[in-house]
Write a structure and sequence with these properties.
Elements: H1 18-28, H2 31-36, E1 41-42, E2 53-54, E3 57-58, H3 75-81, H4 84-104, E4 112-116, H5 136-151, E5 163-167, E6 180-181, H6 185-201, E7 207-210, E8 214-215, E9 218-219, H7 225-228, E10 239-240, H8 246-252, H9 260-270, H10 283-294, H11 300-316, H12 336-348, E11 351-355, E12 368-371, H13 393-401, E13 406-409, E14 413-418, E15 424-426, E16 458-460, E17 466-470, E18 476-479, E19 485-488, E20 494-498, E21 510-515, E22 518-523, E23 528-533, E24 536-540, E25 546-553, H14 555-563, E26 568-574, H15 594-606, E27 610-615, E28 629-633, H16 640-649, H17 683-686, E29 704-714, E30 717-726, E31 732-742, E32 753-762, E33 767-775, E34 781-783, E35 788-790, E36 794-801, E37 807-815, E38 823-824, H18 825-828, E39 830-831, E40 837-839, E41 841-845, E42 852-856, E43 861-870, E44 875-884, E45 887-892, E46 897-902, E47 914-922, E48 925-933, E49 936-944
Parallel strand pairs: 3-4, 4-5, 5-7, 6-8, 7-10, 12-13, 12-26, 26-27, 27-28, 38-43
Antiparallel strand pairs: 1-2, 8-9, 11-28, 14-17, 14-25, 15-16, 17-18, 19-20, 21-22, 22-23, 22-25, 23-24, 29-30, 30-33, 31-32, 31-36, 34-35, 36-37, 39-49, 40-43, 41-42, 43-48, 44-47, 44-49, 45-46, 45-48
Helix pairs in contact: 1-11, 4-5, 4-12, 5-6, 8-9, 9-10, 12-16, 13-16, 14-15
């Protein structure tokens, strides 16, 4: 007899649709197995041959955390290229390296948590480096390109499955897990949702990750917008993955729910499908889900919906069809093509901000002094892989101009630290191999420990000269002569052990605190002071040493020495992405750190031909008056130095464009937590001041002429055509930008708004005819009077040029739309959050499940205005739905109060609403003004009569 082969279960049949296969697999899983799938680390189901699965692989600009990989420019640098084709190719390379790395290390995941589509609304946000732009249109264009590259172009199987971060209105690290972003409906729809929506609708997104913060008083992990908006934008099953630890925050820090069972159930019902909490240990989440099931807060159907979405991603990744997966055998890792692409991306990300007198490009025989704290650095950030190749600006200039024509001064302060006993800190010699942080890869690099195989610092009569850098606000690093930074490991000893500052909690930063006749040396990471003990130098709660700072050489002296002998000085300034502006830490100022200002002034005083190259994750304010040339690049990855040198030499004409406004002063900025870009006049869309450098700005070594603009309205779009001609003498890229503006809007609209752009390469004398098709929907705004989009009829300017402020051509088209209609008060009343203007208020959650209310900030006074309200032939009564305690005052058109409605006693809680009423007499059209006093919540105002 011959044993029969068991039949292939339907979920293994590649000829069946994914939906039927998922149905089959779901039916075979036990309830406990399905609950286990809800954690980030879903366990294997061996009886079915289903492998373990992990959501989440960081891949923002290369495969991160898992060891060596190709490192591309930071995301904000990719945004500065304004080049979707390039960014798609970068995404393609990253996804191929993800597959190749997974083939040899199954810790590498295929569900990539990238890109970040949070808008760069505020340049002091610590994670500015992770976003693409302050503009939703540019952000979605770049994000769509990257996700398409990550997905691959196979019709069925995805190379990787991208998850967009971080849903929603998330631009602050200060109190990021407890702060609430107050987002009015117009800002929600026209700004924050838009970048997500257009990227999801493009069809290459597998899911989103909610952010830590709250929006309108409600945590993003229980946001009704996941159902009301996100899941309506596509027919695909989108996997919603929580941010790390965020499910626990709902109880532990936000105190939004009383129990973790309630919080977990609410998250899952809102749309969270995978819980990233407690590291690799899923037992806590499993217990919470089981508890929620036992309490009737969840049903097995709810669990099935979440598991189905995860399985949908796994099927699309080819997990269950290894023989049919076209990506299974990819081995493209650190290929010559990827190295070339990394350099191309770094070159295209360079922005020329100023070039008076055509100081740039530099002649091949120029004698160059390259100075500055970043001149010989190739910095990585928290979401970088480990460098395989490395190019610093100094190395790039050596290679391009020849080492004999390049002089270097880093500009560090060279110091020794003298103890109260008259001895000096000493770095012992150590015969141990160098180590690069993260080279071995780690699922959670926050857990990587510092080195303890090196001897701690000691003291001796002469000491060791250290390189001191002040990165701003008194945060210092100290580097030993051999190149290692002073760091503190878990045992508390100070060692020269780190190749670079880094880690989740940076252990390489210090502060000098004045004390008596010297300084205490505070270790920032532990919050302890440095002490000297018999067994070595350590940090301790007691016994802090008092040091005298003995300066052997000031950095500006070294800079001046090399600057005065050069033809041109290149000052390379900027930030270390792990210090003063990073995840968990916002910046406090736009100013360049004082240490670097000293170096810049010294260089400029010694040599008027000083070029400033800013290499940073965010904008700075600098005084450009005495600087003939300024460039900016984000940290450009492995080829950053080569790219900068080639731009300086004119091998490449710069064509990067600023993806966000560079403001002239801190006073131009709104409060970091003010998310109302309309009311706060934020970003290039609404800012009415004069920026240092405007959105879209970037110069070239060529010149371009625009002409032949035509525009016509046809069907559902405006068709724009024009010509761009390179009138310079070098081949160069130009980025043509089309902005629109409503010329006579009935509500505040953007000063100008990007609707299309194109990066094009032109040889000298070459012309290109470019065309844009702008859908009429791009001219719409969110009309709070009707709760939907509306195209306002009337004239619209079309502004075509090289930046948001460098407009070369313009014309006007008249569009037919829907006329404004007054608010129908008798039919709908007023939802409190649908105001036209407000001051002193913030939007909060009407209930924990859905809806908005408005409350005065801090229990003070808020004023709300609702324009063009139609009272019809007359009303005789007004009602307000309120909770808390306080008074609502109503007036019309700025006149005297018609009525005051006061809560006779505080309600039992913020969600315990009551209805108050009063008689009024009003008819016709009026602006309604409401004044709220006290800690009350207003949800709705009704009118009758």
């Amino acid at each position: 007899m011959t044993a029969q082969t068991p039949p292939t279960p339907p979920f293994r049949d590649p000829h069946l649709p994914f939906a039927k296969r998922i149905d089959d697999l779901l039916a075979r899983l036990t309830p406990d197995e399905k609950v286990g799938f809800l954690h980030q680390y879903a366990p294997a189901v061996e009886r079915l041959g289903v492998a373990a699965f992990r959501t989440g692989q960081e891949a923002l600009h290369g495969v991160a955390w898992m060891g060596p990989a190709t490192v591309f420019p930071q995301a904000v640098g990719l945004g500065a290229t304004w080049n979707e084709d390039l960014v798609r190719r970068v995404g393609d390379a990253v996804s191929k390296e993800t597959r190749a790395m997974r083939a040899r290390d199954d810790r590498v995941g295929l569900n990539v948590w990238s890109p970040t589509v949070n808008l760069l609304r505020h340049p002091l946000w610590g994670r500015n480096e992770e976003g693409y732009s302050e503009d939703p249109k540019l952000t979605s264009a770049i994000a769509t390109a990257y996700t398409r590259g990550l997905r691959g172009d196979h019709s069925t199987y995805w190379r990787t499955a991208p998850v967009l971060k971080h849903w929603l209105a998330h631009n602050n690290e200060t109190g990021r897990d407890i702060s609430s972003s107050s987002v009015r409906p117009r800002v929600l729809h026209e700004y924050d949702l838009r970048a997500f929506r257009e990227t999801v609708e493009a069809g290459a997104v597998a899911g989103v990750m909610p952010a830590y913060n709250l929006v309108n008083g409600r945590p993003n992990h229980v946001s009704p917008y996941l159902r009301e908006h996100l899941r309506t934008w596509t027919d695909e099953d989108l996997l919603v993955c929580s941010d790390a630890g965020a499910p626990s925050n709902l109880v532990d820090s936000e105190h939004y729910f009383d129990t973790h069972e309630e919080a977990t159930a609410a998250s899952l019902l809102s749309g969270v499908d995978s819980f990233t909490d407690h590291g690799t240990d899923g037992s806590t989440i499993v217990a919470r889900v089981q508890g929620a099931l036992a309490q009737g807060l969840l049903t097995e159907t709810d669990i099935d919906a979440a598991v189905r979405r995860q399985l949908s991603v796994r099927f699309r990744l080819g997990e269950f069809d290894p023989a049919h997966d076209p990506h299974a055998d990819i081995k493209d890792f650190d290929t010559p093509a990827h190295r070339v692409l990394a350099q191309e991306a770094a070159e295209q990300a360079v922005v020329l901000l100023k070039n008076d007198g055509d100081l740039l490009p530099l002649a091949h025989d120029t004698r160059i002094a390259v100075v500055g704290l970043l001149a010989d650095e190739c910095k990585l950030d928290w979401y970088s892989g480990t460098l395989i190749h490395r190019s610093t600006p100094l190395e790039g200039l050596y290679e391009r101009f020849g080492a004999e024509r390049v002089e270097f001064a880093e500009g560090v302060d060279r110091v020794r630290l003298k103890t109260s006993q008259g001895t000096f800190l000493h770095v012992p010699l150590a015969d141990v191999p160098d180590e690069v942080r993260g080279a071995e890869g780690a699922l959670d690099p926050a857990l990587l420990a510092g080195r303890t195989d090196l001897p701690p610092l000691t003291t001796d009569p002469t000491g060791t000269e250290l390189a001191l850098v002040d990165w701003g606000e008194g945060v210092l690093t100290l580097r030993a002569p051999a190149g290692r930074y002073l760091s503190v490991a878990d045992d508390g000893y100070v060692r020269a052990s780190a190749d670079q500052p880094g880690g989740w909690v940076v252990q390489e930063t210090f502060r000098l605190e004045p004390h008596e006749n010297g300084h205490l040396l505070l270790h920032v990471g532990t919050g302890r002071h440095v002490s000297v003990a018999a067994d070595g130098v350590k940090v301790a709660e007691e016994g802090a040493e008092v040091f005298e700072l003995v300066v052997a050489e000031r950095g500006e002296d070294a800079v001046a020495r090399v600057a005065e002998a050069a033809d041109v000085v290149l000052v390379v300034a900027g930030n270390d992405p792990h210090i003063n502006g990073r995840e968990t830490e916002d910046r406090t100022t736009l100013s360049l750190p004082a240490h670097q200002e000293r170096l810049l002034r010294a260089a400029r005083a010694a040599n008027p031909n000083t070029v400033l190259a800013l290499v940073s994750a965010y904008p700075y304010t600098v005084d450009p008056a005495d600087l003939p040339a300024i460039l900016w690049s984000a940290h450009g990855g492995q080829a950053a130095g080569t790219a900068l040198a080639r731009v300086l030499a004119g091998d490449v004409s710069p064509a990067g464009r600023l993806p966000q406004t560079w403001y002239a002063a801190d006073t131009d900025l709104p409060n970091l937590l003010d998310y109302d870009v309309i009311g706060g006049r934020q970003t290039y869309l609404y800012f009415e001041g004069t920026p240092l450098f405007p959105f879209g700005h970037g110069l070239s070594y060529a010149s371009f002429v625009y002409g032949g603009l035509t525009a016509r309205v046809e069907l559902d779009a405006v068709h724009v055509q024009f010509t761009v001609t390179n009138t310079g003498d070098v081949t160069a890229d130009e980025v043509a930008q089309l902005y629109t503006r409503a010329t006579d809007p009935s509500v505040p609209r953007p000063r100008r708004e990007l609707t299309a752009h194109r990066r094009v390469t032109l040889a000298p004398g070459e012309a290109a005819v470019l065309s844009f098709e702008v859908p009429l929907s791009a001219f719409e705004f969110w009309d709070v009077k009707r709760g939907g989009w509306r195209l306002e009829p009337g004239p619209y300017d079309l502004l075509l040029g090289a930046s948001s402020e460098d407009i070369r051509l313009r014309t006007t088209v008249t569009l037919t739309g829907e006329p404004a209609a007054p608010r129908p008060l008798l039919q709908h009343g007023l939802d409190a959050a649908d105001f036209d203007e407000q001051s002193g208020g913030e939007i909060v959650d009407r209930t924990k499940v859905a809806g908005d209310a408005v409350t005065p900030v801090g229990g003070g006074t808020a004023e709300l205005t609702y324009r063009h309200c139609d009272f019809g032939t007359g009303v005789t009564e007004v009602t307000v739905e309120v909770a808390g305690e306080g008074v609502v005052e109503l007036s019309l058109d700025g006149g005297p109060a018609l009525t005051q409605l006061a809560l006779p006693a505080p309600t039992s809680g913020p969600y315990d609403y009551t209805t108050l009423g009063a008689g009024i007499v009003a008819e016709g059209l009026h602006d309604v003004h409401l004044k709220l006093r006290g800690p009350l919540r207003l949800a709705h105002v009704g009118f009758s009569g």
